[in-house]
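Re: folding output
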Amino acid sequence: MPRKRNPVPDGRGAPESALAAGEAAEDRGDYVQAAAAYADVAEDSDPATAAEGHYRLGRVEWRQGRHKQALESYERTLHAAREAGRPDLEARAENGIGAVHYARGEYAQARASYQLAMERTDDPLMIGRFLLNLGVIENIEGDLERALWHYLKARTLFRDNGDQRSELLALHNLGMIHADREEWEAAADAYDQCLSLCERLGNRSMIAKVLLNQAEVLAARHAFDKAVRNCELSASISVEAGDEVGRGEAFRCQGYVHRLAGNAEPAERALLEALRVAQRFRVKLLEAEVSREMWELKESGGDEAASQWRIRALELFRELGARREIGALEAPPRAG
């Protein structure tokens, strides 16, 4: 019996064509067109096809920040995937639900969804991605030991199964964990491996991020000139890519390096530029990090405005649920 379907937006008819049209639109950032294509697939009478459509529609809605709609689409994915006997699609839907909860700062629910996702698949690459997600939550909540364990296990799965693109994400996260633990040699090694892999894959946006991570390690070793150079290279790559938020991250890091080097004026200039980017694009985490840096900078100079920057940083980190950062900001004032 022929399937009953709505007309496909690009006029080609088959679910495969609609999925291809949706992917192309999603890749170029045309989420309205992508959603229209995926919505058509979601109406297919075949449960597996419909589940795929609902899942991709949820992904687009999540990228648009339409969290309520994304959650509904992922729940429809679960229903259709169960009807189709497709645990792999159930796993992807649970991961999507976890991403929605994560975006809302609902970390307990996000963790539960990621764990359910792992229970519904034996695909090592999918399991690795879910482990990465769990590690990110644990990192935010300050459980660095558990985060490190998850990142190491994920990296092994990606490496052993030839997924270099996912492996570089794991290496990047490993470097950050080692840096947070002040394990500078291990952090530098992870970033070097990650950067080499990025160059091999031509992943310029990731190269920009890793250069900033390396800058923080260099600053910890007091190699300030090299660290500033890394920030400048990262900013240049971000400008070429049209990534304004990435450029803001580079200025935030540059301000951090200058502050550690005792260069107050260039530190403040860089941080204020990063703040403008954060506020323009409403990037709460970047604004929180810049506010914390401004607090550190102003406090070291005995500026009365320091307390206002600390209050703002605390407010933002509380909204993000970043326990480790909140604890550091709430610690008793340092003797000066």
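--- second protein (sequence, then structure) ---
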Amino acid sequence: MTKISDEIRKWCADLDSDDILCTTATLYTLADRIDRELVELPKDADGEYIHIGDVMEWCDSGETLTVEGIGSDVLFYIDGENAEWTAARNKRHHHEPTVEDVLREFAYGLGVPVADSYVAAAATKLRLADDAE
């Protein structure tokens, strides 16, 4: 099977400007073929597109999965020896916690409200301490 985009490019290169009816029919045929053959990438809970290889997490538990396949609003992943599927719309892209995230969580656990400027300053100092080692 040829790529649809290559067919569109070839068709444009061969286009005769006097052949309007053929042009319309060809565009409808290509549009129908695109609808049949292509799958739109699903989006996560934040509206970000999901790709194969992305690491996603369940919003309620924080458990992660690696996307092995994509369907219509469905993700496929491997769990042990089994292939599983789950809805895409209630997952988020997993991001490793930053120094700032850890500091905010620590302060929150102590019940201490902390301004972003203090978190940023402390994170900078911690990064500098890490560089010295």
